[in-house]
Amino acid sequence: MTTDLAVFLFLAAIAILAAISMLFARNSVYSALFLVLNLATVAVLYLLLNAAFIAMVQVTVYTGAIMVLFLFVIMLLGSQQAGTGPDLPWQMPVAITLGLALMATLVYALLGRPSLALASQAVLQGFGSPQAVGELLFSRYLLPFEATSVLLLAAMVGAIALTRDEPEGKPR
Amino acid sequence: MNVPTNYVVALSAVLFTIGVVGVLIRRNAILAFMSVELMLNAANLAFIAYARALQDMSGQVFVFFVIAVAAAEVAVGLALIVAIFKTKHSIDVDELSSLKG
Lengths: 172, 101
Fold this sequence. Notes:
The complex is a heterodimer of chains A (172) and B (101). Chain A is mainly alpha-helical. Chain A has six helices and no strands. Chain B has 101 residues and is mostly helical. Helices cover 77% and strands 0% of the residues of chain B. In chain B, helix 2 packs antiparallel against helix 3. Chain B starts with a helix and ends in a 13-residue tail after the last helix. Classes of the chains: A mainly alpha (172), B mainly alpha (101). Chains A and B meet through helix 1, helix 2, helix 3, helix 4 and helix 5 of A and helix 1, helix 2 and helix 3 of B.
């Protein structure tokens, strides 16, 4: 077994265990922290797959901003203990059966093709660097980039409008 | 990293499945929402793996857009959960069985 494969298997084990722990943690705060661990592990995988800029975006946006927002809302609502498990007796076995069926289908669809070995090609100079990503963003993908800024503005306005305290007597 | 792309894609499939099972079994709306984030993240991992294998940066740019859209989705989704909590005093998805606000 090569070192690369060992490192990959180690990271994959951490990511999968963190994801499963997220599902079955009793406390929502622990779930959020396990999700942070999962996202950070995937960020390390991004680094190893020559996507340095995306790895940094993952850490700052996902594990930084988005998960802080999740923790903030969990603590704001005081819902740490809510919804600990399903009451329907058949829900868990059915969900796991359907999940395994989905995974079998995904693996069949994705891996039923000849393997693209990463080792066969040398990586181009600067592949995945902030400069290379930025050049693509501001040339070929300029329109989607600008559309994203409009989307973020719309999300900001929507979030404020949804959580604003309405004056008494006024319909929404 | 010198690992076959299929291994990374298989990891992505496993994480996606865990996210789907999470949406199916957890009734806490925030937990279901975090499972959706897990699924988005699994799809991103597949994008990065194929971008590396095909030597095409477009996959990485797409992941950038997915992360931006996820940020917007989380802001609006959590605002919706807070608004639901204000009216129903619960975020158990089983309680949300009526369309009347």
